[in-house]
Protein: Phosphatidylinositol 4-kinase beta 1
Organism: Camelina sativa
Amino acid sequence: MDSDADGVPSEFFDYFKVLCIQGFLTCRKHAERIILLVEMLQDSGFPCFKGGPRTIQNLRKRFHLSLTEEQCVSLVLSLISSSLDAWRTRQYDYYQRVLNGIL
């Protein structure tokens, strides 16, 4: 994903990383509002909210509010990098290729 068969880096992959960083930082700016919305849905009966207070704690952790913006950029880049050759990523790509002819 990050380069072609000859190892030439992909401009689109670099753009993808920029978009991921921008998206994460934008969501993070609104973290308290997002968390409040999820708190309001706790009693909705939806299965994804059945974790109780743990749901909110886990959501709050995912925003990494204690990190600086620069640290968050590094975090997002490391998450992307670690997922590049992850077993689950390869399996999902294979699934898409076989089932849907994608990739």
Notes: The chain has a mean pLDDT of 88.
